[in-house]
Structures are given as C-alpha cells and as structure tokens.
Amino acid sequence: MSKFLNVISEVQHYKTPVPQKYDFFPLPLYGGKYMVTLLVGGGVGKELMQFVREVIEVGRTPIKFEEIFAPKSAHNAERDLHHIKTSIRRNRVALKGCIETKDKATEKSQFNLNIKSELDLYISIVHCRPYLGVRCLNPNIDIILARQNTEGEYLMLEHETVKGNVESMKVITKQKTEQFAKWALHYARAHHRNKVTIVHKRDVYALADGMFVDTIKEQARDFKDLRFYTMSLTNFLEQLIKRPQTLDFVMIPNLYGCVATNIVCGLLGGPGLLSKKSYSDYYAVFEPAVGSLATQLEGKDLANPVATLNALRDMLAYLKMEKDATAIDCAIRRTLSVDKIHTPDIGGNGKTSEFMERVKFHIRNFFCSQPR
Q1: Helices of type H across 243-351
Q2: What is the per-residue burial (b if ≥16 Cβ within 10 Å, else e) of 252-287?
Q3: Model pTM?
Q4: Over 60: is that where the pLDDT of 174 sits?
Q5: Are 363 and 59 in contact (CB under 8 A)?
Q6: Cα–Cα distance, 342 to 351 (Å, whole number)
Q7: Does the CA dihedral 155-159-164-168 come out positive or negative?
Q8: Residue pLDDT, tens place only, 61-72
Q9: Cα 58 from chain centre
Q10: Contact of 34 with 28, CB cutoff 8 Å
C-alpha cells in the first residue's frame, strides 16, 4: 500500500527532521491546471506577487495559486508555519517571497530555516550569469552554485553556557552530504558542467568540512566524466571575484554558499536579478536568490521584479511548461537589453510598472508568433 504524506508533521523539533520515504505520486492537477502554493512574503512581496499573477494571466498559463501570506510576528508562529508547510506538502511546488519578522528574539521567528529544514529542502541551485545591457562588475560569470541547504551553522544549535560564553554547533552528517552530492552531481552532468569545485574550510573545520569533502569524493567515483577540484573558502572567494571564468559548477556548504550567492549577485549587478531553486525528494520551492523585504521600496514602484520573475520561470520549467518559461525569459531579456528599462538598483531610473508593461507586451508577442 502506498504511504502518503501526513499533513500533520511528526517532527517536533525542526532541527532534527525525521527522514521519511514515500511512493511517487503525481503533482496535483485540477481541471487541467497545476495547483501551486504562492507564499506572498513581506515587504514588497505583495507588489511583486501581483505582477506574477498578471504574467500568468497574460500567458494563459495553466496554473492556479493557493495564496498564503507570511507570518508577521513570532506570535502564533507555530500555527502559521503549519499552514504554510501543509500547503507545500499538499501542492509539492511553491513560489515563495521573502519572509522575515521584526521579532528576532525567538527561534520561531526563523521561518525560512524552519521551512527548509522540516521539508528537507536539502539542496539549492543558483545559476549565476549576467544580463546583456545590465552594468555589472564582471561579465565573465557563468557559474552554477549548488549549496547544501539544511546543515552546517544554519541549524541554529547554540546556547549560553554561562553569562558571556556562547557555544554554537556546526553539524555535518554523512547521510545528508551523500544525498546532496548525488543530486548535485546528476544535475551537473545533466546541464553539461564537467568541472566541479568543492569548497571547504578544512584547515579550520578538519572533521566537519573534511567529511563534506571526503563524502563528495566518494560519490565522485560514479561520475568519471566530471573533473573534480577542491578549493579552500578564501581561495574560492578570491577566484570568484578576480577570475570567475575559471569556475563552472561549485558544491559548497550552507553558510559559505550564502556568502558566495550574495557576492555573485553583487558582481552581476545586484540582489534583484537572480533566482534560487530549492529541492527535496518530494518538494520544490522557487524564490529570489537573495531574501530581502526591501521595506524601504514599498509603495514606491521601484522594486526590481526580475528575481521573482526568474523564480516563476524556473517553476514553470520544473512543471515542464517549457514554452511558458521561455516566453518569460525572453521577455525579461528583451526588456533589459533592448528596451533598456532598468530599475534604480541596477543603475536606471525605470519604474517597476514600466518594466512589467514591457514584459507583458513581449509575452503577448511571443505567443502571437509561437502559438501553443
């Protein structure tokens, strides 16, 4: 008998999720439309997700959103998080905005980490490449960052032993690293990446980062067509800034991956351009690569929608709606490189609404020239 997912989690503490196995079952499809969780997020999230709905409507994409608003405080966080995770478990695919709270005093305010850990979204992928016409610090970047997403320092295992002394734990397990390595290496092969760089800080974390590197090398035996290199974190960051063209596919632990993602976004023009894909064995979550509420931009019509639109594109590609994904990608590129509408964060003075009108125009033209 098939074992289906219990919407009430058996995991009491999200730091130690219970691994479970389920038989395959298809994505929810109702009346010819996929049901997808839309986690609106805070800050400018409401404005950006409204543009997402407009793009779906213009392209007549067979998607129906189950809309959920992010928790605003740690109060009732358990109930709100249960609602979010139940929706993602039910739909198995989510488009997500940034969720943060002003209350940083409790664990319950760490919503993003909670969702990633309890849903076991153990890998995130960020494809880093420049946009033609967008001013950037280094145009020679075409790197895929594969980041371990649930372990390392992000487990938030810390305590104060005595007043003034705080201990924090970094946890790396062989099981999770094997899981991460297999998925990442298959992804590298499928996307024709043959040079894999494993980033570590083994000189400081001899056991933790040592296990990370050694476990990936063990899995590498099954991938004879790939070339493997190890690189310390300091050398990697220097290479990333000075000679990024020497990097191809990067496998990196959680915290280092966060740092690398932010640096690459800065090199390519800003945090409003790149998207991130997070996967478990059963779920997929798509969101901007750099989580920011950008509350200072609320209501000003100045937010950059590109990262959110790229997350939508990635989601449609995952659902095998290649034509819809291509339409969005082409529309973004034409708006940036041909129309040259740039929001202030990437050196222009364009409005978000102006940008989106051109994106929708190009999507309509795409489907007029290439009907479904």
Answers
A1: 254-268, 306-318, 322-337
A2: bbbbbbbebbeebbebbbbbbbbbbbbbbebbbbbb
A3: 0.88
A4: yes
A5: yes
A6: 8
A7: negative
A8: 999 999 988 776
A9: 25
A10: yes
